[in-house]
Design brief:
Length: 302
């Protein structure tokens, strides 16, 4: 029988933000990046995760990718851990990116499952094991089949957790709580189950999850952190209240492809420019109107 992990035992817990990458004139806005990092830490965010899906990593060239990670680590200045997104559909490229993140001072690496080439479960195992063996850095797997086209099965995750001491957790964005329960049952208390869906943070915590790598925390870090903290101190009533309070805003964050809505919201709130890189583009007028209403209803803009 699996023992539910205590949050204090977890390496990665609480509300961790999948940080958006701010652009200005199609280049990285370094001043805005510092502002975003400070905004997150002041809001109670427990870890910063740059260069993931929300960070538009597929549109960053190698120099930009490395630079965003370096700057994030510099701006965080040791206040919270930085879990750098360094995954790729090329194992060699993922190793290169992860080696750089370790050298730059990242606390961990987030490794998305390879996309487009759709490896078998054995291929996934060999890919992640090769990265783990090449770089002595804690690794959190990122399972998001809706983006990558392949699911990391619970048995594959368990095998990696057993064979690779530095594969320490998984960001689960499958949307499948039964699958997540199987991951927890197969890996035990020392392996971190992290929600990859804002709407499922509370349910994932209830089955032994340790936290969330959040999109909505880009605009409401304090509330997201409070919800996880309420659950951790066994104040379920407040956790439920915060969960339902956040749901309309979370829904608005995904009315178009992430990170289009959240960056549009950040622009409206004055956190950074709303710019995204092609092939992402600005929101449709109808959806933008819905988003602005959600922000007003949540009293984030007037």
């Amino acid at each position: 029988m699996v023992r539910v992990v205590n949050a204090e035992e977890s390496m990665f817990k609480g509300s961790m933000v999948a940080l958006a990458t701010p652009f200005k004139n199609d280049t990285i806005d370094e001043a805005a990046l510092k502002k975003l990092v400070d905004f997150q830490i002041e809001g109670g965010t427990s870890a910063i995760v740059p260069c993931g899906t929300t960070g538009e990593s597929p549109t960053l060239d190698y120099d930009e990718h490395d630079r965003v990670i370096e700057l994030t680590i510099k701006f965080v200045a040791g206040r919270v851990p930085v879990m750098a997104g360094t995954g790729s559909n090329s194992t060699r490229e993922a190793i290169q990116l992860t080696k750089h993140a370790k050298k730059a001072g990242a606390a961990a690496s987030l490794q998305v499952s390879p996309y487009y080439n759709r490896p078998t479960q054995q291929g996934l195992y060999e890919h992640f094991r090769a990265i783990a063996e090449a770089v002595d850095l804690p690794i959190v797997l990122y399972n998001i089949a809706s983006r990558t086209g392949v699911n990391i099965e619970p048995e594959t995750i368990a095998r990696l957790a057993k064979d690779c001491k530095n594969i320490v957790g998984v960001k689960e964005a499958s949307g499948n709580l039964e699958q997540m329960s199987r991951v927890k049952a197969l890996t035990g208390s020392s392996f971190d189950l992290i929600s990859g869906d804002d709407a499922l943070t509370l349910p994932v915590l209830s089955i032994g999850g340790t936290g969330i790598i959040s999109v909505v925390a880009n605009i409401v870090p304090r509330e997201t952190a409070k919800m996880v903290a309420a659950f951790e101190r066994h104040d379920l009533a407040q956790a439920i209240e915060l969960h339902y309070g956040l749901l309309p805003l979370i829904k608005a964050m995904f009315i178009e492809t992430n990170p289009i809505p959240v960056k549009t919201a950040m622009g409206a709130m004055g956190l950074c420019a709303p710019d995204v890189r092609l092939p992402l583009c600005g929101m449709s007028s109808d959806n933008k109107e819905k988003l602005m209403k959600a922000l007003k209803d949540h009293q984030l803009i007037k």
